[in-house]
Amino acid sequence: MKLNRRLLTLGWALALGVGVVTNLPTAQAQNLQRVEQGGAVMVEGGGYCTVGFNEPSRRRSLVAAHCGPDGARVRIVDHNARVASPQLGTLYRSKAYDGRLGNDWAAIQWDAPVQIGGNRFSGDAWVNPNTIAVGERVCYFGQTSNRPTGAPTCGRFGGAEGNTFFVEAPMTRPGDSGGPLWIPGRGFVGVVSSQWVAQKVPLLGSRDLVVGVHATDGPRVAESRLLGLYAQNLMMPASGSAVGPAADAVRGAVTDGFSALAGFLPGVVNYS
């Protein structure tokens, strides 16, 4: 399953991808009842997603809210052996999830038999995206993109609006949703939410970005602000050399300017 929501006027699209469900044989519960960060899960009524963060003390794992409907039952998947567990958990979406990018995170509450592993990629510490410098190195791991090699994909932090943030990195693929985004040596930043995919715009060009969400509830972020953040990345990419307070001030001005423009042109950020 791949869901597309398009920003019409300037040709941007948000792609939220969960892996396509195929029929897998059910493994014996005792053979597949441990969940690891970066592991695969299958959500009833949704599809395949990647585990973003484990909280053993709360017996839960964090993923993306769009991985499936609220209250859906969840199976643990071993793609290498092509088997799935019986239903062993329940997905609970953020109560603040707006069906788009706002608060696109969820918790899987695991049943008693499930063993909950640690966080081998990010470590247990959390990093608020609003404390990260533009250009800082950020990595992600998704079942589709990274399982075959076991190596993460890394890029550069592109800024945040509320708990939604952009990363300039190779695009995620269906099945990577929910996977961990982290700063090496610092900690977990959020879960993979979607892609900001852009057609080329005259005079400005285009830039595709991975979208992440910090897995705590925050206020809804206006789409005009996200458009402004995108414009900032288009004109002053995170992989460029512009750093420091002066560059940050220019980035802020770009974000504010394009956000204001979007406010006067509602069609720029309309979804279909």
Automatic annotation (TrEMBL):
Task: State the Gene3D superfamilies in the record.
Answer: Trypsin-like serine proteases
Fetch the SUPFAM superfamilies from UniProt: Trypsin-like serine proteases
Question: Locate the Peptidase S1 domain: which residues?
Answer: 63-195
The stretch of residues making up the signal peptide is: 1-29
**Molecular function terms from GO:** serine-type endopeptidase activity
Question: Which processes are annotated in GO (biological process)?
Answer: proteolysis
Q: Which domain of life is it from?
A: Bacteria
Keyword line: Hydrolase, Protease, Signal
- InterPro entries in the cross-refs: Peptidase_S1_PA (IPR009003), Peptidase_S1_PA_chymotrypsin (IPR043504), Trypsin_dom (IPR001254)
The record, for Pfam families, names: Trypsin
Q: Per its record, how is this protein called by name? A: Trypsin-like serine protease
Organism, scientific name? Corynebacterium lipophilum
